[in-house]
Amino acid sequence: MTDQESVSKKKMVQAVADAIALTRAENYEDAVVAFEAFLPKLSSGTDDDKRLAASAFSYYGLCFAATRKQYSDAIKYCELSLKVHPKEPDHYENLGKIHLLARSRRGAVDALFDGLELDPNHRGINEVLDLIGRRQDPVISFLPRDNVLNVYLGKRRHEKLEERRLRAIERRKRQLAAQRGKSNDDTQVSSTNGAKN
User: Fold this and answer.
1) Is 197 exposed, middle or buried (0-12, 13-18, 19+ CB in 10 A)?
2) Are residues 114 and 166 located together in one domain of the fold?
3) Same domain, yes or no, for 99 and 144?
4) What pLDDT score does 13 carry?
5) What DSSP string describes 17-81?
6) Are residue 125 and residue 32 in the same domain, yes or no?
7) Are residues 109 and 148 in the same domain?
8) pTM of the full predicted structure?
9) What secondary structure letter does DSSP report for 147?
10) Which residue among 9, 31, 133, 179 sits deepest, i.e. has the most Cβ atoms within 10 Å of its Cβ?
């Protein structure tokens, strides 16, 4: 490899790393442009280049889904990364996000939990699951989740939990308002006492 080829390869590797960073920052528009400029060159290079490209395809797939809305192709890109790097939870996170963009909650949850099996403490996967909500066990455990009774009772349970959550938020707002009011009263009392002295 010549010095010029080495510099060119370093530039490509850095460009792909930068595109991955842009994807993580949800700057999909700029990331997809960078990926499309360098991934084809890496994909046709040496075996190391191809492995690097394969590790980046799930990020490209996420950008592709977010910008082009072609979800089935985006999923294929992710699956390519998973075929080469099946133990990398970041690829499952990306696949889960693509399924969410495609409005497939079930596909997203499946992908995210596959990633959690590899790394239960994966920050990105846990953040996405916290955002979309984790599934609880069926209300009647011996019946299938999609049984009409479990569906009905699950919806009622969710409604009650949501009501409790909203009441807790309102209670916290009232407590904060009362604390602010008390601190304003304390400030006024101390300024009044200072004026009397």
Assistant:
1) exposed
2) no
3) no
4) 84
5) HHHHHHHHTT-HHHHHHHHHHHHHHHHTS-HHHHHHHHHHHHHHHHHHHHHH--HHHHHHHHHHH
6) yes
7) no
8) 0.66
9) S
10) 31
